[in-house]
Amino acid sequence: MDDPILPNLTVQQLEYLVAAAGSxxxxxxxxxxxxxxxxxxxxxxxxxxxxxxxxxxxxxRHTRPRPQATEVLAHARRVVAETRxxxxxxxxxxxxxxxxxxLGTIDAVAVHHRAEVIRRHRRDVPGLDLRLTVAPSGVxxxxxxxxxxxxxxxxxxxxxxxxxxxxxxLDEPMHAYAPDGVHVGPAERWGPWVTYPRGSHTREVIAAxxxxxxxxxxxxxESNQPEVLREMVRLGMGWAVLSxxxxxxxxxxxxxxxxxxxxxxxLVVARRADVVADAAVDALAGALVAG
Length: 291
Prior knowledge:
This protein has 291 residues and is of the alpha/beta class.
């Protein structure tokens, strides 16, 4: 037996049926929906025509559902309820109160500079599914370009990257630190250095800053983890250039070699330029930029 042709029902017609079945009069049903009684009556008549089964019977001046209306009414209630759920979901998506955001940050952002912002945003937007990845800037930007992340907070690249847009987030001074007991002396005698690996955006900032003040940049050890670099300095393996938040936190903070920073790295919020606007991503990006 072939499947029957599906009746062309509208959600509005089904909503009229639910209201009519739950109200003492059609006037009351119409008032509950904010429509006129004639509009409600016409909508119910059209529903009957499209279903092809009489749904109401008249008793004096009133109408009431016929037994055949039971199945249609059950279907109407399911559709109306699920459509309301869909409307609520769509409204939350449009306003950024719900959705999925895949955020990538460098460790300094996730642990220090924007940790409270991220916590507060998750608390204020309970419908948001926030997925956080912490990694070096280059890794994050690669993931952003291929669509594995929606939003990245990282060290500003040295030049524009095709397909990405960036917004300034904060400028972070980078200071030089030496092992305990080491004589500082003039900049040309500083080092050797423990620092970030080749290709790191932060390493490029450090190298440029040291060159500006005439300090050699002889590297003896590398790590992507600033906490590891800090421990290397404590162990006497070499000097390091780190942000104050990373070098001077904890029970044994490092001491700056001098008050002035070696350089400043700019942290930016990066996004793909070719994606459709997403309210949830926009809201989190705005919070991260504002700090």
